[in-house]
Specification:
By secondary structure, the chain is α/β, with parallel strands linked by helices. Helix content is about 65%, strand content about 10%. Helix 5 packs across helix 12 and helix 9 crosses helix 11. The radius of gyration is 23 Å and the shape is elongated. The two termini are about 20 Å apart.
Length: about 300
């Protein structure tokens, strides 16, 4: 599902350029354009687009005033500010009012596509988290977890690991144990601290031995390498087929967009790979929420 976008800018050339870029890159669909803040606010409240591209300076009502008005009226979409102003105070005020990114004038196609990709990634993730929260609300009144439920946790986790192409990685065993532990001992909807999870899983491996700290670090390293393997798999799929359903779903959900793009560039240009970095906490939190959702369904 593509982003719905509204453009508010008093410069007709700028509006036209932005619409052409959006239409051609395929990230979103322009629902309408407005040449001023007053007209734009009226159209936005009526059509409720996902994203608003809005000029900072306009004759009738500037972008910051318009954003404030829209938020006070209940609009909760995302804002991208368009401006050639470099005044730090004005930029800071715009961020405080809730904009997501700036697009600088004169309009640059690469910058517009990059910013829209980032916003699209956030939008998809937030929608997914919202759906997860709705599922968790139902789980709060579910029956206590039974041994059979624990086995289902393992089955769900294995399915996700297979989709990510890491079921055979050494750290996959640790991820399975970690998810079983987190779900079995979950409190409300919060995800436990990673150190606590590592130590809990280490205790099950070591069966009460003293060397828990060393084993916890080993678990973390195995999981890190396994997540890096998943990142490489997603980047490889993206290079082959950017529209592949697995890439479209898992890549932005589990990884930062810039990390995926960098890994794709390294592979495509046959560059010397660095050690790379992954956000373990984000990966495992998303894995946890997705496992809960699949159990509930």
């Amino acid at each position: 599902m593509a982003l719905s976008i509204m453009i508010v800018d008093d410069d007709v050339v700028c509006r036209s350029m932005l619409q052409d870029i959006i239409d051609e890159c395929g990230i979103g669909e322009v629902m309408g354009t407005a040449e001023g803040g007053v007209e734009g606010a009226r159209m936005i409240l009526k059509s409720k687009p996902d994203v608003v591209l809005i000029d900072l300076l306009m004759p009738d009502q500037d972008g910051i005033e318009t954003i404030t008005q829209l938020k006070n009226s209940g609009y909760d979409g995302k804002f991208i500010m368009i401006s050639q102003i470099e005044n730090k105070d004005m930029v800071g005020e715009a961020y405080q009012k809730g904009i997501e990114f700036f697009i600088h004038k004169p309009i640059n196609r690469v910058e517009v596509e990059h910013v829209l990709s980032k916003v699209n990634e956030q939008w998809k993730y937030e929608r997914y988290v919202s759906e997860i929260k709705q599922s968790l609300a139902k789980l709060d009144i579910a029956e206590p977890t039974s041994p059979r439920k624990e086995r289902k946790v393992r089955d769900v986790v294995k399915t996700i690991l297979m989709d990510l192409g890491i079921i055979g990685e050494i750290g996959s065993k640790d991820i399975i144990a970690l998810m079983e532990n987190a779900i079995e001992h979950r409190e409300a909807t919060s995800f436990p601290p990673l150190k606590e999870l590592y130590e809990s899983v280490a205790h099950t491996y070591k069966q009460g031995q003293k060397d828990i700290e060393k084993e916890s670090k080993a678990i973390e390293q195995r999981i890190r390498r396994t997540i890096m393997a998943a990142l490489n798999n997603m980047a490889s799929i993206g290079l082959t087929d950017y529209s592949n359903p697995k890439f479209e779903y898992y890549a932005p959900l589990y990884f930062d967009f810039q990390d995926i793009r960098m890994r794709m560039k390294v592979m495509d240009e046959d560059l010397q790979p660095d050690k790379g970095k992954v956000n373990i906490k984000k990966f495992l939190q998303v894995f946890y929420m997705e496992t809960l959702e699949k159990l509930n369904n």
